[in-house]
Structure formats: C-alpha cells, structure tokens
Amino acid sequence: MSTTALIWILVAVVAVLAIVLVAGIVLARRRRISLAEKEKAERKPKGGGYQTGGGISLAPGGTPAPPAHPAGERTEVDGQPGVGDDASVPRDSKRRGIVDVTLPDEQAPAATRTEPVTEPVPAQQEPATAPVPAQRPPAAEPVTAPVTAPVVVPEPVVEAEEIEPTSGRLERLRGRLARSRSTFGQGLLGLLGGGDLDEESWTDVEDTLLLADLGAATTAEIVEKLRGEIVTRGVRNPEQARALLREVLVEALHPAMPRAVRALPHGDPANGGKPAVVLVVGVNGTGKTTTTGKLARVLVADGRTVLLGAADTFRAAAAEQLATWGSRVGAEVVRGNEGADPAAVAFDAVKRGVVAGVDTVLVDTAGRLHTKTGLMDELGKVKRVVEKQAEVDEVLLVLDATTGQNGLTQARVFSEVVDVTGIVLTKLDGTAKGGIVFQVQRELGVPVKLVGLGEGPDDLAPFEPGAFVDALLG
Ligand SMILES: Nc1nc2c(ncn2[C@@H]2O[C@H](COP(=O)(O)OP(=O)(O)OP(=O)(O)O)[C@@H](O)[C@H]2O)c(=O)[nH]1
C-alpha cells in the first residue's frame, strides 16, 4: 500500500472519530435538556397543599383569600379570641372596627356629632357637689349628642325578684367546682395521703398541679413547701395531709389581698356625692355582660341603687341582654345605638348616674378589638372620658377560666392597657382547671375578687381563698 493510500485511510478514520465525538456531545446535551424538562414537567404547582418536613404550609399565590381566622367561628363556648387576634365576628350583628369611629369636630353642631366627648366641657368642671341637671349650663348639654344619644331605659321593677344573699355563696355553690375538685380532692389528696412519698409520687403531685393550670412557678413553690412541711411536721395520715395541703394552697392564694369590690359611692349621691364607677372589661364571650348583670343584683340585694351602661356596642344583643338584667333588678340602663362609640356611651351612663344620684354605675365595655393598640385606644378613651364625670373606682377584668393559658395572655394584655384592679373568673363551674386562680393572681398581682359558677343570675360568688380551697378539697 502506498504512502498516499495510508494517509487517506488515516484521514478517513480521524474524520469518522470526529463525527462520532460531535454526535456524542450533541446526544449528551440533548439528554441533559430532556432530563431538566422532565423535572420541570413533574414539578407541582407552587405550594399546592404541599407541606414541607418542617411543617410549613404553603398556599398557592393568587388563590382566594385564606379561610377566615378561627376567631370568626369562636363563640362563648369554644376557644375564646385572644387580645390581638382578629376580631371575632359578633354573634348576631355586623362587625364594626374601632377604626370606624369618627371623631367629632370640636366645633361641630351637636346634632352631627358621633362622639359626645373629646375634651373637658364646662359641665365636667363643675364642683363635684353641684346638683347636676339643674345647674348645668345649656351649653354643656351637647356633650351627650343625639347621634350617640343615650337611650335611657328606666326599668321599674315590675316583679321584685328574690335575690340570693351574697354571703356564703361560695359555700352554697361549692358543688359547681366538682370538676376541679376531682383533681385536687381525689387526685392530690390521694397522692399525699397514701403513705410514703417517693420521687415518682412527687412528680405525680407536680403533674396534677400543672394539669389543674396552676402554672410552673406556683406548682414548684407549692411542691417545695409540701415536701418540706411533710418532713418537718411528720405528716403520716390523710387528715394531716389534708390540713397541710389546705394551708399551703390557701397561702398560695394570698388571703391578705384586698378583695372588696369598690362599688360604693363617694359620699351621699342624693347630696351631691358621686357614684362609684366600675368598668367591666375583657374579651368578648368571657361573660362580661352576665357578670355585670349578676353584680348589679349583688348590689341591689345590698340595698344599693345601680345604673348600667351598655358600652358594648359591637353586639346589638349585648345591650338587650344588659337591659334585661337591668329590668330584673330595677336598674336604669343607658345604651347607645349599635356601633356607637363605647366611650360615648360610657360617658353618658356615668353622667346619667351622677344626675340620677345612683350609688353605682356599672359599665359593660366591649372587648372585641383587632389589636392591642386598638384595645389601648378604646379602653384608655373609655376611662379618660368617664373620669371627666366621676372617678373610676374599679376595673374588673373578666376572664373565662376554661380558656386556660389564653385567658392568661388576655389578662396580661389588659393589665398593660388599663389599671386592672380586680379579676372575675367566670365559668369555673365548667372546668377542671380551677388552678388558674392561683396563676392569674400570681401573674398579675391583682386579686381575684369574684368567681362565676354558673349561668344563673345569682351564680356569682365573692372569692374567698379558704372557702375556695375547701371546695376544691371536697
Ligand atoms: N357556665 C357558666 N357560664 C357563664 C358564666 N358566666 C357567663 N356565662 C355564659 O357565657 C356566655 C357569654 O356571656 P356574656 O355575658 O354574653 O359574655 P360577654 O363577654 O358579655 O360577651 P360579648 O357581649 O360577646 O362581648 C353566656 O352564655 C353566659 O351565660 C359562668 O360563670 N358559668
């Protein structure tokens, strides 16, 4: 074979190799592209219900608005809305936000005002002893502007209802604490009175207290005290264990805290004295209106005259509900139109209370607010405005005992917003977590003054640590 032929064969081989190489590269590229496309094709639409391992739920963009906040479904029996939650949808009326409140022009004619009070007016600067209606200059009257004009509902007592005496109510209603009693009475006493206590038994005691919602700090304190005293006193039998447990629990409830509800007037209202003003605050559904009504009965039973202010203007039926309570005890009710500014209604109520010379004005406020700022604005305003008429003597925070930690969160927020002076713990009849009493007091440093033990009109009892613990221990 000639050299020329060899060269041609080599060229041909190189050419074939080059073609194979190029074809290989192209094919490889093609494959890679098709792989990527496959991946793309298989990718699920963003967030379509996919949940990552971390538990983060992704929702596809541009889809309809997410389901309503559970607060919208909350009722007085379910989980309660917390402060700072979205507002609950009122049970039977349109929702109104605090942002809807239109502040009046100072100079606006009375008839167009939506809120009666913004600044001090002559009437509010009168001496406390002034006989109010007669001596008030006419110029002061626009303060209660017609738009929020109080609907004063004088309710004569058609049929005087018998009101249960208030003393000893906790003892009478002790049966209502049955659910909590099973934890303390049977649970704790069973553990403590059962002979030698090993580490495991103490863990059980701790768990029992935690389950009853006493909170970690109080639980630790109580357990430590019990452990020490059991050894020191040589507790050997169930009776001794019971006595010790009672003592430790009562002590943890700070029996020396002042628990009187400051609802008595300043001087004689018939002679220019001012009524006591009690603001009832709390998240909706906790039992504010019911508590206000029950408290009115307590006062009436004590021979006091009461005026009720229905400043919960979010829920139309709340005013109705309060009016019913009022009519049952012959208490006048001042209410605003639905959606009226709660501060205006509160102002009108207290003003009317001063004029009418009642002993006590109880103001049921609204707790249905979007944010802490909203709450602060509104409650702060209610208090400021009321104080133009009379001193606020008591701010009762109503907490639903069945909501546990949520109630505690609410309590913290409210106590930052207003100077809470007492706590009413409602629905203690429906919970095994009566221990929340301990925690609430400890957290807020504010005494539990009243407890709600049922839906009946006289199911409100003064809170007495000794009687309460006795009821818990059975
Ligand atoms: N079992 C029990 N139920 C109670 C107690 N206190 C109130 N309730 C019930 O709780 C529900 C709510 O009470 P309301 O007084 O309407 O609550 P509220 O806080 O005024 O609610 P809003 O007007 O929506 O803000 C009602 O069905 C009451 O009967 C209590 O101590 N025990």
What structural keywords apply?
single chain, 474 residues, alpha/beta, Rossmann fold, Four Helix Bundle (Hemerythrin (Met), subunit A), nine-stranded mixed beta sheet, 15 helices, 43% helix, 10% strand, binds guanosine-5'-triphosphate, SR_rcpt_FtsY
Summarize the structure in words.
The chain has 474 residues and is α/β, with parallel strands linked by helices. Among the domains are: 238 residues, P-loop containing nucleotide triphosphate hydrolases (Rossmann fold), CATH 3.40.50; 83 residues, SRP54, nucleotide-binding domain (Four Helix Bundle (Hemerythrin (Met), subunit A)), CATH 1.20.120.140. 43% of the residues lie in helices and 10% in strands. Strands 1-4-3-5-2-6-7-8-9 form a nine-stranded mixed sheet, sandwiched between helices. Helix 7 crosses helix 8. The longest helix has 40 residues. The relative contact order is 0.14. About 25% of the residues have low confidence. Bound molecules: guanosine-5'-triphosphate (GTP). Guanosine-5'-triphosphate (GTP) binds next to helix 9. The site of guanosine-5'-triphosphate (GTP) has 22 residues, from helix 9. GO terms for molecular function: GTP binding; GTPase activity; signal recognition particle binding.
Give a summary of the structure in a few sentences.
By secondary structure, the chain is of the alpha/beta class. The protein is built from 15 helices and nine strands. Helix content is 43%, strand content 10%.
Show the helix and strand layout.
Elements: H1 3-42, H2 122-125, H3 132-135, E1 151-153, H4 169-172, H5 178-192, H6 199-211, H7 216-233, H8 238-252, E2 276-281, H9 288-301, E3 306-311, H10 316-329, E4 332-335, H11 342-356, E5 360-365, H12 372-386, E6 392-400, H13 405-417, E7 422-426, H14 436-444, E8 448-452, E9 460-462, H15 465-473
Parallel strand pairs: 2-5, 2-6, 3-4, 3-5, 6-7, 7-8
Antiparallel strand pairs: 1-4, 8-9
Helix pairs in contact: 5-6, 6-7, 7-8, 8-15, 9-10, 11-12, 12-13, 13-14
This protein binds guanosine-5'-triphosphate (GTP).
